[in-house]
UniProtKB/TrEMBL annotation:
InterPro entries, per database record: TPR-like_helical_dom_sf
Highest taxon of source: Bacteria
Gene3D superfamilies registered for this protein in UniProt: 1.25.40.390
Organism: Parapedobacter deserti
Protein name listed in UniProt: RagB/SusD family protein
Keyword annotations from UniProtKB, A to Z: Signal
Signal peptide (from-to): 1-25
């Protein structure tokens, strides 16, 4: 019986991973998991959960186009439809399919239905429910919901909030809307408290469910990567909430990883290895990747990244990198102190010139010939090693732990431990943890770039509150500049700009960077628009 159930669960998952035969993948945004879909078999708990994951696939590339066009990385090509030009030019977006938030709400409403029906099913058939799986399944549904709401908040600045089941998409306009601050607080409560005594921090090991008795190295670890992990999701929420100590308290143990080799920003991923996490088998890259949305060409699953970024047929080449973004990589100074250019993240890695056009290459380095490029299995990253390090260093900066923040940005914990021997400060003063944290090379050192520090300021001369605040702000802006390179094309940079602009009450942090990609005639118009914080977000009626 147990073997039969495992095979059935695996079949449910393969349906998710096979668009050709999956009702969960081939759905439109109005499809919900309805009452009759729960047919009285406990395997429906698993298939219902996978149905939520399928909804995430539907919106996985959405934020990349919507945020990177409104940040400074992307601009449309002459091939691009008007809808993409309207996003780029910050025009009204009502009715624009690329700006429609309904896909995120589909994730949320499916999660609400799943949570409601899961508890209802357990009450009705208590002996049919595996309690060791039930809690983590509900917890995972909570995290899918929290992730989708956080994306809505970051993109739209607000969201219609509901925990109720059986709500339809065309009823969203009747639901109360929460602004970003209130939304973040509500999501933190969901993660910490949850519903019916199940919070958002329980994790199911899918390898043990699907492949019991199989060595962990041989289990299909992608299954464990499809739902946002509790730690990075909570870290990001706490960062938006200004709870900086909590970010560090969660983040350092997470990258310590019980003494494991994951998430270290180490020299394992030095040089060309850095780029492979976006193009190669994700199971082999779990030391970098935390959570992904997987796709499989052989099962008729694709996202739009290759089609939109490549100029090789059958791609459509809708989007290209901007000059201002490419020049940021080109002016970086390497570790030797004089060679210019980000050699391992810049040209030929993040972007490349091909057939006379500049294009984003970050996601297409695996297969690039005309006959193969459309077959790339491009997974979309929800969280990876650099994300949690940026969260931690941003929090350390706000806690005025400048040496420690700069260690993560520049030379790494490895160098910090050697130069601060006898004077180690929190959070790098745990000798047991340091044995593993010593593997950390820092964001810039990993790609052979030299350190950067706030210009014209010294940590040895911070003798007034004003100087401390000036240093803190300058380091924040260096963090943004690094995110623009490290996380290019991953839908990160605009949100970091917004967070810091709010923190310092200075819209220019957003406006100056976003407007810089436009020609002189348009630049001041866009800058003036972005000086109004209301215009940082997409306005789209529900």
């Amino acid at each position: 019986m147990m073997m039969k159930r495992q095979l059935t669960i695996l079949g449910c998952g393969l349906l998710l991973l096979s668009a050709s035969c999956s009702s969960f993948f081939d759905v439109d945004a109005d499809d919900m998991l309805k009452e009759e879909d729960y047919i009285g078999e406990s395997n429906e708990l698993y298939s219902g959960y996978m149905g939520i994951a399928a909804k995430v696939q539907d919106v996985a590339d959405h934020a990349i186009f919507l945020s990177e066009l409104r940040s400074d990385l992307l601009e449309p090509t002459a091939n691009a439809p008007q809808e993409l030009w309207d996003i780029y030019n910050h025009q009204p977006l009502e009715g624009n399919s690329f700006a429609d938030p309904r896909g995120y709400y589909a994730v949320i409403l499916n999660a609400n239905n799943f949570i409601h029906k899961a508890f209802e099913y357990r009450t009705k058939y208590p002996r049919a429910v595996d309690e060791s799986h039930f809690g983590p399944l509900v917890s995972g549904a909570i995290r899918f919901k929290v992730w989708a709401y956080l994306m809505l908040g970051k993109l739209y600045g607000q969201a219609a909030y509901t925990d109720a089941p059986n709500v339809k998409l065309d009823e969203l306009h009747t639901i109360p809307v929460l602004g970003m601050d209130e939304l973040v607080n509500r999501l933190i409560q969901l993660m910490e408290v949850g519903t019916n005594q199940i919070n958002g921090q329980l994790v199911l090991n899918w390898g043990n469910v699907l492949f019991p008795g199989v060595n962990a190295a041989d289990q299909d670890l992608v299954w464990n990567m499809i739902c946002p992990s509790p730690e990075p999701l909570l870290m990001e929420l706490y960062l938006w909430a200004g709870q900086y100590s909590r970010v560090v308290e969660i983040g350092i143990p997470f990258i310590y990883d019980n003494g494991g080799n994951r998430y270290k920003i180490g020299n394992d991923d030095y040089n060309g290895e850095w780029i492979q996490v976006f193009t190669r088998n994700p199971v082999t890259k779990t030391r970098v990747l935390i959570n992904i949305v997987p796709f499989d060409f052989e099962r008729n699953q694709t996202n739009r990244l290759i089609r939109f970024f490549s100029n090789t047929y059958p791609s459509v080449y809708y989007l290209r990198p901007t000059e201002v973004a490419m020049n940021r990589f080109r002016r970086q100074v390497r570790q030797d102190g004089h060679t210019i250019g980000d050699f391992y993240r810049g040209e030929n890695y993040t972007f490349v010139q091909q057939n006379g056009d500049w294009l984003i290459r970050k996601f297409s380095r695996d297969r690039e010939t005309a006959s193969e490029i459309h077959k790339n299995n491009v997974h979309i990253v929800l969280y990876r090693d650099a994300d949690v390090h940026f969260f931690i260093l941003e929090a350390l900066n706000q806690l005025e732990l400048f040496d420690e923040a700069e260690a993560l940005l520049n030379g790494g914990i490895n160098l910090y431990l050697s130069t601060h021997a006898g004077n180690l400060q929190y959070p790098f003063n745990n000798e047991v943890w340091n044995a593993q944290l010593n593997r950390n090379w820092g964001i810039r050192r990993r790609v052979d770039l030299g350190p950067v520090y706030p210009a014209g300021l010294s940590k040895n001369d911070l003798d007034t509150p004003e100087k401390v605040e000036a240093y803190k702000r300058a380091l924040d802006e260096l963090i943004v500049e690094e995110i623009l390179m490290e996380s290019a094309g991953e839908a990160r940079s605009l949100f970091a700009m917004i967070r810091m602009a709010k923190r310092w009450n200075d819209p220019a942090i957003v406006a100056d960077r976003v407007s810089a990609k436009f020609n002189a005639g348009m630049r001041e118009t866009v800058r003036a628009r972005m000086m109004n914080p209301q215009n940082w977000f997409v306005h789209y009626p529900l």
